[in-house]
Design brief:
The structure is a homodimer. By secondary structure, chain A is α+β, with helices and mostly antiparallel strands. Helix content of chain A is about 30%, strand content about 25%. Chains A and B meet through helix 1, strand 1, strand 2, strand 5 and helix 3 of A and helix 1, strand 1, strand 2, strand 5 and helix 3 of B.
């Protein structure tokens, strides 16, 4: 007897798109409390949770990383686990203070590879100024897990909390640089073709800090699984607004676009692991952009604007003056992308 | 060419004994900071980390669970992930306020099984009064992971911090009930024989709370991987004392002892997932024991005492008046025990 697809967990449930969202909403119902006292939890459906901490906030986040290949051009699963985790804190306005990891390793995994991964992970954690708080190591017999999976937890302190529901009508939308590079690199490897492209995986705290110091920021998000398309949809939905994206302003590398075209996916649905989407007050956007350029994010660009809620959360203005719906990605775009 | 064993990660690295400890000490060196400001992190090598929180402490912990079978007599991986995580908070004196989980699921895993696991997990989290703060879901293609692995993160608030270095000469050592049941159940299943034994997996916060309300508690620990042997060694080493264990006072069920005997392992090295070791001031031990009995931990017993540091951290007094060293377990006693 073959079970119906709905009876089984499929790759799309972990793809970070609509199926993941539905499963999270389902899971949430079993839990009595969705937020700590005076704080925010799974009620927010945001990158992290928060607790009041004196006159500041503590922000928490957790993610598991399963990227394949474990070592990819521009990084490895260690960089990804640390950057992905600490970036989730950064986009909520928090400066990371602590990091924890759990390693799920297949028996027989080379010790040298593990050491390289740890070194990469520590490099990012050290750069962000966070402390290693603790962790866990589990080893599964051969076949129990394919090489290695890493879980990252991060805690940070925010003077002011950025939330995805903060976008306001009139705001401008900025991206810190070309999108989709990480997704394209992993996709190219999985499809077995050569590319000179490197993953963008890095800690983006300095970008958020530069932006927050330069002007009034209303929301930020790192466009990982589901790419820019998912990130903008989440911000627009949570904020009750519509975002108009100017297609020709969105920075996408030639190679990334090429790989996306061959694979038949939208580059705007491909994961970035070292970029941020920043929603700024319109009058401050120029200052924020200059600050990003000065901080080394030379390809940062204004890519759209926040307007009043229309029929759809995100609309993409195409080069020829057309307008199309930029939907939340669904299905499994690239398995084991992060 | 066959690599030397040292070049590869082996099951013992995840066994929670000396090899795990060594690997953690190695990994730690790559990180510049080992503790947050005014707090404790991987410098403690304890069950959790902490941060000052007003006049209290926030305690954090993370663990990944890989138990096989996923459903076992007395529980499942969901119970284990929630109880294991929240128990690590409880033994540091903290009341859980938040929980996060990440699910690493194999494509094709039955949805009904996942729902059962979530229901179990939520049951424990709800019982402990914690909120679901967030989480992550990743799905790996078939063969990427064997069924499911779950990571649990917990945060709690402690009025007074219990640390494993708190045991003092003269203290008495109490255990909340029979040890090794979880390890024995999983071991029996893996060896393929029948047993009426059930895992002890449960939340032990009420035991710690009852003990702390009844008397002066100096340290506590949940004897999971590595069992009572590892837990007592860790407390003794961290506290710079020796613990004498009275072998005939340690509660071990007949079935557990039988399974351990057949498998040729020491029941004191088998994991419990619903018991705690509590080190109490000698004068208060009787009150603490009564409070535990009254709270339903009817098999709680005083099992030993803390003496000045001798040659070895833990010495086991055998029935016939002999004394032997109770060492930290090494090797992989039971793979995928938790």
């Amino acid at each position: 007897m073959v079970a119906a697809a709905g009876d089984r967990i499929g790759l799309p449930h972990g793809g970070g798109g609509v199926e993941t969202e539905e499963l999270i909403l389902y899971i949430r119902r079993f839990f009595r409390k969705w937020a700590p006292e005076n704080g925010g939890g799974v009620d927010l459906l945001d990158d992290g949770a928060f607790l009041p901490y004196g006159d500041k906030y503590l922000v928490f986040t957790i993610d598991t990383y399963t990227v394949k290949p474990v070592f990819f051009p521009g990084g490895d699963i260690g960089v990804l686990a640390a950057a992905g985790t600490l970036n989730d804190l950064a986009v909520m306005g928090a400066r990371p203070i602590g990091f924890m990891d759990t390693l799920l390793i297949e028996e027989g995994f080379p010790r040298k590879s593990l050491e390289k991964i740890i070194e990469s992970m520590a490099g990012i954690v050290n750069e962000a100024g966070a402390a290693l708080l603790g962790g866990d190591i589990k080893v599964m017999p051969r076949g129990g897990v394919d090489e290695i999976a890493v879980t990252g937890f991060g805690v940070g302190v925010a003077d002011r909390l950025l939330r995805k529901d903060g976008a306001r009508i009139g705001d401008l939308v900025i991206v810190t640089g070309p999108v989709g590079d990480h997704g394209a690199v992993v996709l190219a490897h999985q499809l077995g073709f050569e590319t000179s492209l490197r993953s963008d995986a890095r800690y983006i705290g300095p970008a958020i800090e530069a932006a927050m110091n330069a002007g009034e920021i209303h929301a930020a998000k790192d466009p990982t699984r589901g790419g820019l398309a998912m990130a903008l949809n989440e911000i627009a939905e949570a904020s009750g607004v519509t975002i108009i994206v100017w297609g020709d302003k969105v920075p996408v590398r030639e190679e990334t676009r090429g790989i996306a075209d061959i694979a038949g996916v939208d580059p705007l649905a491909l994961a970035s692991e070292g970029q941020a989407v920043i929603v700024a007050k319109r009058g401050d956007a120029e200052k924020v952009l200059s600050a990003l350029h000065a901080a080394g994010y030379t390809e940062a660009a204004v890519i759209g604007e926040v307007v009043e809620e229309k029929m759809f959360p995100v609309l993409l203005e195409t080069g020829v003056g057309g307008l199309r719906i930029l939907e939340k990605p669904s299905g499994e775009i690239v398995p084991r992308i992060c």
